Amino acid sequence: xxxxxxxxxxxxxxxxxxxxxxxxxxxxxxxxxxxxxxxxxxxxxxxxxxxxxxxxxxxxxxxxxxxxxxxxxxxxxxxxxxxxxxxxxxxxxxxxxxxxxxxxxxxxxxxxxxxxxxxxxxxxxxxxxxxxxxxxxxxxxxxxxxxxxxxxxxxxxxxxxxxxxxxxxxxxxxxxxxxxxxxxxxxxxxxxxxxxxxxxxxxxxxxxxxxxxxxxxxxxxxxxxxxxxxxxxxxxxxxxxxxxxxxxx
Length: 249
Fold this sequence. Notes:
9 helices, 25% strand, 4-stranded antiparallel beta sheet
């Protein structure tokens, strides 16, 4: 399968704090990789380096074979990178349809159309995405009145409007109940396979991680301490120490 993301020997420090230390991995099309670790492990810094919000001190990042070190977030986004956040970032006074239309306008370089009536632009495309994420019945409701699980699906539709090949998902199931978590991750898994995308996600719910990730990367104090299939990572003694406080001999 095509390599969507390749990270080589990534380093990032903030003064004397080494936030990311020699991190290397790759993500292929059709894969979901979970990046886990305790608070302060370096997960968010890794995401921000990949997304262009931070520049690495050392190392290289390749997206679809193109080196993106030093690129601005907008330029990284143009390569086909989407991102969802732990706290949803929709426009609460706008409807679900309008939120997705806005993302489509940006993707199609039609932001100047904001000076005109945008209600007729990309309606079919937006509705197709809203239907894909399973909330077609909510299309004309303001995001401010939606349940949190539905907001997460809106954010996913907004991210998909960019037709990403790489999707970065920061705590995608945060604040959701068990059934909602399973539903969102099953949906994400299906989209990844049908669209031949790659997903890198952070997650504190270990059931979600081990149920849906093809591979798991574990960070601690900026360093990779484990990486591999979920069943192997679960057996790793250093991982057990971090998450359980104990390890087998």
